[in-house]
Write a structure and sequence with these properties.
20 strands; 632 residues; globular; single chain; alpha+beta
Length: 632
């Protein structure tokens, strides 16, 4: 359903009385079939879905929109993030209107303020058509090009005139005056674990509570050969029984010569499912049909401001084909575990110059150490330059780092860490280079906008808060991207729930406060320590060789992006888009590095790009393709 809230007479006059409700200050809520999709309780309006709530003892209770106890149906509960789900919440009292979104920003609320007219919508394409003058948001575009998210972070959209409501923000309309109220955030510090057994039980209990989410009998799981999906699979089987659980994995074919690109992943997933005595269901994703896929996801893309990441095609086919084969059910995933536990450094990709997984995992652990509190403390005390891990990895990865000058405060050093993590392509701490796409003259402007938009409401005092800061910002960057959010929107648009089992309030708190020695530093405890400790009770992980996702690129045979942009039907689609939407024309050369963009386009035309360059070319295409889809 497309929801609009506005005081624009030209908009609300188009809706019949049955499809609009008048609020104060001459504002209306509008939508087709409005009253069937809107829950009204006294002066409160809720649009979306509720999955559950946390009771007075902070225990999670499964619920739904219609079954939520009335005592929790109040503005305070929603503001305090006591309610889990994806929704828009509106309080209409006297002449004051308050509007908030859910605690993770799953439902997008885009808004435009034009003089005395405010328009809010959950449909990006709709609000784009209502805003006639639009200018490109350089910060949002650059971040989309430079990170795996391929989508603007939470407060931004591709246009300056259209913004997105943050889960820490609230729209206040008071006597025709509009303002955005921002919540100040006190980040927790990590805590020492006094009893490892109790901590393990606590971590496990969080999932036992949250696994109850969902209202349908059939439970579909996005399966891989990795730790996270295996962990979730054991929880689903224990709770719902094997006959109600359906693990699904994609068989990926990017080109004729790539054949089945993730054959190792499928082989390992089969072993895991056989060990757990459950059938693995294989869904075919063949990029020879990519034009068909693009046409089918077009409306979802435009509505939710999603670019065409490879994860998007994967999620779409998994959900669509699973429903066609087995009927409707709840979808589950272990996504975001990497970011929340080890900040993306747990996929054996930090050091790839050896095939041994033990070596590659310790490479990840070294990166975890460099982004963690121990190394940050060394920077505070000016003892970091001689650190052997810092010297080793910066040399191996060819990173040129910044030297901290005298007089730089601890807060400024933490901000530099966060800047490296969320703006730099390598995410290496103190990396001087932000993005190849960035015109170096605008580096400071890019960084200052990040600090102004995303750090100004954070109360950061010391190095013990660094893990909480990462997880907090992951909520606004990577987890808002076209690699994570696509599954939510595809499922929701089909009237189904998508449940990311790690993305819950209590698990996020646990991981925000987890100290370095539990798989985040140089000690011998492995990454994702508690998850693996629990999973080992159900699975002999060494025997089954559970590991991160397994592709042909792991053996240096083929690269997905090279296959996609040069040897699949996507090649013609990319060519066509670049001819209509030339990046050198639409992207401001004062902000973007046109020489680098020209270099990429030349390598695309000559078919000479390496794997990393092919990835960059495809990302450039996804942003240009989005502008093509919305007819900008």
């Amino acid at each position: 359903m497309n929801l609009i809230i506005s005081n624009n007479k030209k908009i609300f006059d188009k809706y019949s009385n049955k499809n609009k409700i008048k609020l104060g200050n001459n504002f209306y809520i509008m939508a087709e079939n409005l009253k069937a999709n809107l829950l009204i309780h006294k002066n409160l309006f809720l649009f979306g879905n509720i999955l559950g709530y946390y009771d007075k003892d902070n225990k999670f209770k499964k619920s739904s929109l219609k079954r939520l106890p009335k005592k929790y149906f109040n503005y305070k509960s929603f503001v305090k993030h006591s309610i889990e789900g994806y929704f828009v919440f509106i309080k209409n009292s006297n002449k004051k209107i308050q509007i908030k979104t859910d605690s993770r920003g799953i439902i997008d609320l885009f808004y435009n303020l034009d003089k005395k007219t405010l328009t809010i919508s959950n449909n990006y394409y709709q609000i784009c058509n209502l805003v006639h003058k639009k200018t490109l948001n350089n910060f949002a575009i650059l971040n989309s090009l430079s990170t795996v998210a391929k989508r603007p972070p939470l407060r931004d959209s591709f246009f300056n005139e259209i913004k997105r409501l943050d889960f820490d923000q609230e729209i206040i309309i008071d006597r025709n005056k509009f303002k955005i109220i921002e919540r100040k955030v006190n980040l927790p510090e990590y805590k020492e674990v006094s009893d490892e057994t109790s901590a393990t039980e606590n971590y496990d209990q969080n999932f036992q509570e949250y696994i109850e989410i969902g209202n349908r009998k059939k439970k579909f799981l996005f399966m891989s050969s990795g730790w996270d999906s295996s962990f979730v699979l054991t929880k689903l089987i224990k709770k719902y029984g094997r006959k109600n659980v359906y693990p699904v994995v994609a068989s990926l074919k990017f080109s004729k010569r790539s054949k089945i690109y993730n054959k190792f992943e499928i082989e390992k997933a089969k072993k895991i499912c056989k060990h757990l005595d459950i059938k693995l269901n294989i869904i075919r994703v063949d990029y020879s049909y990519v034009e068909k896929y693009l046409n089918e996801i077009n409306l979802i893309s435009k509505k939710h401001m999603l670019t065409n990441s490879l994860a998007y095609f994967l999620h779409y086919n998994l959900i669509k084909q699973t429903i066609a084969k087995f009927g409707k059910g709840d979808f589950y995933s272990g996504e975001i575990s990497d970011g929340s536990q080890n900040f993306g450094f747990s996929q054996y990709i930090t050091l790839t110059d050896h095939t041994n997984n033990g070596y590659r995992e310790y490479g990840d652990k070294m990166m975890n150490y460099l982004v963690g509190p121990s190394f940050l403390k060394k920077i505070f005390t000016k003892k970091y330059l001689g650190d052997p891990i810092y010297q080793l990895l910066s040399k191996k990865m060819n990173i040129k780092t910044e030297k901290i000058k005298k007089g730089v405060t601890k807060k400024e050093i933490i901000e530099k860490f966060l800047t490296s993590m969320f703006l730099s392509e390598s995410r290496f701490p103190l990396n001087q280079k932000m993005s190849n796409y960035l015109n170096i003259r605008n580096k400071n402007n890019y960084i200052n906008l990040f600090k102004q938009k995303y750090l100004s409401n954070l109360n950061i005092k010391n190095f013990k808060q660094i893990y909480a800061a990462y997880i907090y910002l992951y909520n606004k960057f990577h987890w808002q991207g076209s690699t994570v959010r696509t599954a939510y929107h595809i499922a929701n648009d089909k009237g189904l729930d998508f449940i990311n089992i790690f993305w819950n309030k209590k698990t996020m708190k646990f991981l925000s406060e987890l100290p370095e020695e539990y798989g985040r530093g140089l000690e011998l405890k492995e990454t994702k320590y508690f998850e693996k400790k629990i999973l080992r009770k159900s699975i002999d992980v060494d025997k089954l060789n559970i590991s991160p996702h397994s592709y042909l690129s792991d053996t240096n045979e083929l690269n997905a992006h090279i296959e996609l942009i040069f040897y699949s039907p996507m090649n013609k689609i990319i060519n066509k888009t670049f001819k209509r939407y030339r990046p050198q024309v639409i992207f401001d050369k004062k902000y973007f590095n046109h020489s680098y963009i020209n270099k990429l386009l030349k390598k695309f035309n000559n078919k000479t790009a390496n794997g990393d360059e092919a990835d960059k070319i495809y990302t450039l295409f996804t942003v240009c393709k989005f502008f093509e889809e919305i007819n900008y």
